[in-house]
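Quick one, T. Sequence first:
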Amino acid sequence: MATTADMRSGLILKIDGNLYTVIEFGQNKTARAAAKVWAKMKGVDNSRTLEITWNSGETIYPVRVEKKAYQYLYKDDTGYSFMDNETFEQVTVAESMVDAPQFLKEGQEVSVLINGETDLPMGVELPDKIVLMVTYSEPGIKGDTATRTLKPATVETGATVNVPLFVNEGEMIRINTKSGEYVERVK
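Structure tokens:
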């Protein structure tokens, strides 16, 4: 088993039968008391958030997680369907398990997190940055560039992203999937 010394961001722990991913962690040490390790965690299989403190060196129970490359196929009433790129096996996951479902495009490659104990999908991660085409955008006003002015633009997946005034319809843009923000124009 692992101890609190093995704590890191992104680690998935089993606590009271539920799975939680470590978002943030740290260590508190006072002059007379033993060191403590704390972690802020978000539920993988539920929507709860926790903050737990352990004594330094205490045992924790990490879950073995595999990251596999899958391809996004389609969305229907049962959820989002993905296909394993190696075995062509398909899995369907709920919308709550997908990182940023508004940026999913058919045929896009994603990473599916698989629980090593049960072989069930735990979540879907999109790449950090993706390239999408702008399908609708209001024309920018000429000369209004003194400040960093943004305008809403709709991309091919239907999501709305704030972009600079110089971005027009039909252009390809790179988007950060974690924050949902415009990064740059792609040639």
